[in-house]
Amino acid sequence: MPIEKTEAIVIKTHKYHETSKIATLYTKRFGKISVIAKGIRKTDSKYGGIMETINLISVIFYYKSGKSVHLLKECDLVNSFNDVRSDLNKTAVAYAILELLNCTIVEEEENEKVYNILVNVINNLSEVKKNIINLYWYFTLELLCELGFTINFSKCVKCNKEDLLDKVYFMIVEGGLVCKECSRTKDIDFDISLEALKILNKLQEMPLHSVCNIIPSTRSIMEINEILHRFMRYHIDGFKVPVALKLISN
Ligand SMILES: [Zn+2]
After folding, report:
1. CA 200 – ligand 1 centroid, Å
2. Would 56 disulfide with which of 78, 148, 197, 219, CB 3.0-4.6 Å?
3. Ligand 1 centre and the CA of 116: distance in Å?
4. pTM for the predicted model, two decimal places
């Protein structure tokens, strides 16, 4: 069994037998993997507290080819994101992002870009004070892009018209917007407000550190969640709306 080393974010964990734990990790080198940490729940385990959801860790494990769970050898804490953990809203956003990642990606598909986006978004979540739901949307759009779904929020998918100042509609099957003219003959899923449209547009263009400067109204929050979730429910097998979103009060 080869020994491998990588950095990872802990997506989730569950208890296994009396003293062990199985953790799902999003790793830099292997994508999503699961490891069993034997004896980690013993009171004298030197790794206690490291294998916790959200933590950024360094892991050394025995890679078992063809197995769904690998064997942890050692782990080290790199960052426990205490500023995220000490704030219920931030913890909920981080959990929602991890839930989303877990249900949309398959195991052992390395994608360093997704790993870097994940770490950067959680780092940013530590620092920001307001509008943190924007980071969930930012991550969702970036992840969708990596999964091959780039939603164009700036022009009509039918006629390519860019000046969408009038009423605009969203077509899930087509994966984008349709203008008023094109909507007459097509199957429309729902209309989208200009405010929500502008926010989604900005999220795709802005650098990560500015994303939380956008102030969404309560209506836009509901609308954007609905657009993104309905889109993913249609296009991505296994997608589930993250339960943690219910805990966020913006
Ligand atoms: Zn059109």
Report:
1. 19
2. 78
3. 36
4. 0.95
